[in-house]
Design brief:
By secondary structure, the chain is mostly beta strands. Helices cover 0% and strands 51% of the residues. β1 and β2 form a beta hairpin.
């Protein structure tokens, strides 16, 4: 993190982007821990959310990462 003093005596914190723990094309075995509002399964790896369509909470599935955003990744069941 970079601290920078701004007007009014306060500090503004600029967070540096942390690299995601997954890459596009990775194949992982994950536990589905929850359900998104759209009905997709949700898993987490080191605080990074992976959304898996057609997965139910409690399942253990193998997924292939198809796309990555800042805090989430989308995967498909294999």
């Amino acid at each position: 993190m970079v601290h920078r003093r701004v007007r009014g005596g306060k500090y503004k914190v600029k967070k540096t982007p942390s690299p995601s723990p997954v890459e596009v094309g990775d194949e992982l075995e994950v536990n589905i821990i929850g359900k998104s509002p759209s009905g997709d399964g949700i898993s987490e790896i080191r605080g990074y959310t992976i959304v898996v369509p057609k997965a139910k909470p409690g399942e253990r599935v193998t997924v292939r990462i198809t796309s990555i955003d800042k805090k989430t990744a989308n995967g498909e069941k294999i």
